[in-house]
Amino acid sequence: MNGNASDGRDTSVQLLDDLKQLHQRARQFAVGAIALLLVMVALAMWLVQDLSRTKRQVTQTQESFASLQDEMKEFTEQLARTAATEAKIKAHNEAGWSAVSRNKYAVALRQFRAAAQLTNRARDPLEWAEEQFNIAYVLVEQGGDAEAEKIYRNVVVENDRNLGPEHPDTLVARNNLAGALNQQGKYAQAEAECRDLIKLEEVVLGAEDVETLRTRGELANAIDDQGKYAEAEAEYRDVIRIAEKVLGPEHRTTLQARADFALGLAHRGKFAEAETEYRDVIRLQNKLLGPEHPDLLKSRGAFVGVLKAQGKLTEAETEYRDVIRLDGKVLGDGNPVTVKTRSGLASTLEAQGKHADAEAEYRDVIRLDEKVLGPTNPDTLQTRGAFANTLDAQGKYKEAEAEYRDVIRVEEEVLGNEHPVTLRSRGGLANVHANQGKYAEAEAEYHDVINLRQKVLGAEHPDTLSTRNNLAEALAREGKYKDAEAECREILESEMEALGPEHPNVVATLANLAIALESQKKYGEAEAEYREVAELEKKVFGPEHLNTLTVRANLARTLGEERNYAEAETECRNVIKLDQKVLGPNHPKTLGTCNDLIWILATAPNPRFRNGAEAVGLATNICQLTQWNNPSYIDTLAAAEAETGKFDAAIEHERQAIDLAKAAKIDLPDSESRLALYEAHKPYRSPAK
Question: Within a domain: residue 357?
Fold first, then answer.
């Protein structure tokens, strides 16, 4: 039992120890559980916070993705808009250049302007510059050179800034700028631009590059337009030599250089050489480009001007009409080239004495110029100036003066008072003043034009010297024969040196000198001068040119004054035959020479040279043709009637001539003395030498 009790106690003690350990472990477990719980709570709290952060990050990511999607959508839409804009620009450009190829410049300009509106200078300056270049190119073709100049300058600025001064696009833009300057009469600026550009092109592109040659051709044009003919001719010849070597004799650039050279020859008065050159160029252009190519039509138009300058008026008229027909077919009736050719036809009609036809043609050309080019375009204004000259030639002085004054007003506003076109119109106005007997006004206008031309072009420029020649002619008509002679001799010194002895301007001055000598009754000197001029006219212009025939008629008149009636009559009759052939029987020049012949037949002191019946018939005819409005012709008729004993008719017609002369303020020397003779039933006899 004791053993069992002891065992029970031991068991109880063991149980108590076990309970203590269990309790201790329970406490440890509780502590661990609490710690674990705390850790779990902390972890849960961390997880909650991290989940919150993650949710925010997800939200932010979602927002960023949405923003990226918007940006991608906007970028895609921008690409689409850019592509659409580029497509529109390309379409406008293709349409524009297609119109240019068909010479539909108004259509081309609309297309290029539409393309330019789609560009932005700040965003893409080169794209903007390209479209501006296209616009300027078309403006030049339309005669809008002043606006083209401004645009080309901006294009050069952008190309220079973004591509560099030696980039081909920059060089081409500068070349076109020089052309626009030249077309506006800014010859010195054009020359300077060309010379500076050529230096760059020869380094960058080479001396034999097409663009270099093109700039040298433009330089030659600028030099030629300044009247530096010898220098220009040398430049033309060198350009042609290189072009033929590098590009070939039948290359389009070579042929254009030859056409420009032919025009330069014409400016120097080398019309025969110019005609030969043009004929060969036209033959090659016809072979290579076809009979309707614009280059060929331009050459033919310039070629006709050379024919006209040589007095080949019938051939010139025929050629002009054929070129106009082709211009209308290929380029259109309203194209500037077509209209300019029609202006040349009008000038030819005027030279033939077809004043009414010329006036009608000019009126139609002006209407087209104003429609196609605009009323302030230089070509329009030049046509109006030529039209005013036609009015002047018909004796419509008031209309001519009004037209000139309005043209000059516009030219001074648009081109400036020193522009060559403006000065040409002012010279025309001075001519009208002289023709009306307003000599003081004419002199003042001539002097002002001469001063401006000396300033702008130089004292020895052909235009300056030509205006001085017109002044000399006006002085002679005013009766200031000594002043006219002195002016002519001074002009000749400059012209001979600058232009050479056979230049048309030199020949014209010599003719005016002869007139001044004749008017001073220096008949021997005048005869010698007229004979020299007649030979020069034949050589330079040809035997049937209007100028040649005019000088020969003046020579015949001088021979009559010297009592050399046999040669005077023969010369008159020969000139009349040529006048009738070249100009027609009703041309004012024909009638004027006929009047000189009638005067010999009616008034020669030697009866061997008088033929009253023929004189009356011829005089009656020219009076009828001029509608009895020419006092000089009626005066001659009166002399013829007195020669045949018809004194009553002579008295009536002499009085009529005197009244007309007074009304028109025309000098009719010795008319009152002749009337007194007829009233005394005596014929008039030319005074002794």
Answer: no
